Amino acid sequence: MDRVYTNPLVLKHLWNKQTNAVGTVMSNRKNLPKDLIKQKLLKGEITFARCGPQMFLKWKDTRDVLVMSTVHNADLAPVTVRSKVGPLEKFKPQVIIDYNKYKTGVDHGDQMIAYYPFNRKTMKWWKKMFFHLFMVSTVNSFILHKKTKNVKNENLRLRNFMINLASQLANQSDSYPRFNEVSDSENRLKGRHFISKIPPTLSKAHPRRVCKVCAEKVKRSTGNRGRKETSYYCSSCNTPLCVDECFEIYHTKQNYRIHPEAASNYTFIQPQERVKKMRRRRFPGQPLDIGKLVVALNDPRNAIYASTVQNLPSM
Fold first, then answer.
1. Residue 160: how many CB atoms within 10 A of its CB?
2. Among candidates 232, 142, 246, 243, which has minimal Cα distance to 196?
3. 48: three-class secondary structure by DSSP
4. Which of 12, 60, 58 is nearest to 34 (CA)?
5. ∠143-146-150 over CA atoms, to 5°?
6. CA 210, CA 159: separation in Å to the nearest integer?
7. Mean predicted lDDT score pLDDT of the chain
8. pLDDT digits (tens, 9 = 90+) for 233-283
9. Strands 86-93 vs 76-83: parallel, antiparallel or unpaired
10. Which of 148, 250, 253, 292 is in the most buried spot, having the most CB atoms within 10 Å?
11. What's the CA angle centered on 249, arms 260 and 170, to 5 degrees?
């Protein structure tokens, strides 16, 4: 049995149905001997407890192994295992030997998945589920690959299979268009498209947006963030575009990112430069004579500074 389903109540129910069972068990299950679970063992040591026909056994190997059975006792048996220095003889509980011998399906698949885990801590549950299902499908494909008759190397390991699979997926990734690129091409290369002025917003009477063709071209060629603003966009695609070449390139070329005519004059906007420009726009320039000062104070944009100068505090 898989450790997800093994617990004392299930084994008791199966015993009453005249069915024996053996399986690994999780340490947080109810009605387990907590003192044995917390007991520290050296490698190769065992501890066990019985309750009627049920036996609970803890064995220390590379890590703690917890198992329950209604068939076995706590006997040990010699086995030969592989190691870095060659074959090595050691003693294992008989219940562990039988479990490894007869386990199939989910247990065997979980064991193979645990060999090369690549899970990372994440706050998004769907990422963990996706990579788990991806690893399950990888192990299943490896098992099916081993069962085929035309396999050249019968000693193929899961590690080598995963490396070959990753290389093949990486080589074929560039030959297939992305989903958003397919839908984007179907929309922008068909139908009728008209260029229009970007409509005003509550905060801007004449808004400007970054041209999509220029930005993609610069990002692909240099890796930096290129910026070329425009006041026009395609109302059907809702995409800002320059009037001259970019509008035609975007609606006629399959891959508009590599077209040489796009992004002829662009500027790189770095974060520090943007902050400096915002600070310079926040404060008006300082006039050099009294005449320029009067003109600056009468400017509606500097009304707050004019009221500050005119309403001096009383001494």
1. 12
2. 232
3. strand
4. 58
5. 145
6. 46
7. 79
8. 988 888 898 887 888 888 888 777 665 554 455 444 444 455 555 555 555
9. antiparallel
10. 250
11. 70
Q: Tell me the CB-side half-sphere exposure of residue 225, using CA atoms within 13 A.
A: 6
Whether the CA torsion 238, 240, 244, 248 is positive or negative: it is: negative
Structure tokens at 109: 């698949």
Angle at 62 between CA 60 and CA 67, to 5 degrees: 45
Residue whose token pair is 């004579």: 289
The most distant pair of C-alpha atoms in the chain lies apart, rounded to whole Å, by: 107
The first and second tokens of residue 219, run together, are 């990002």
pLDDT tens digits, 175-203: 555 545 545 556 778 778 888 999 998 88
Q: What is the DSSP letter of 203?
A: S
Tokens of 260: 């040489």
Q: Show the DSSP H helices in the chain as ranges.
A: 8-16, 34-38, 94-102, 106-113, 125-147, 158-173, 179-188, 212-222, 246-252, 271-282, 290-298, 303-310
Going by the DSSP 8-state scheme, the letter that residue 301 receives in this structure is G
Q: Is 141 helix (H, G, I), strand (E, B) or coil?
A: helix
Query: Both tokens of residue 174?
Result: 């560039």
User: What's the token pair of residue 229?
Assistant: 């603003």
CA distance 223 to 23: 55
CB 74 within 8 A of CB 93: yes
8-state DSSP, 243:
T
What backbone phi and psi angles, to 5 degrees, belong to 115?
Answer: -65, -45
Between CA 69 and CA 10 the distance in angstroms is: 11
Residue type, 276: K
Residue carrying the six token digits 């963990």: 128
CA dist list (Å): 86 to 61, 79, 82: 18, 14, 6
Query: The tokens of 247 are what?
Result: 């509008």
Q: What are the CA-CA distances from residue 20 to residues 55, 58, 77, 99, 111 (Å)? A: 12, 19, 21, 13, 23
The two three-digit tokens of residue 212, written as one number: 């999509």
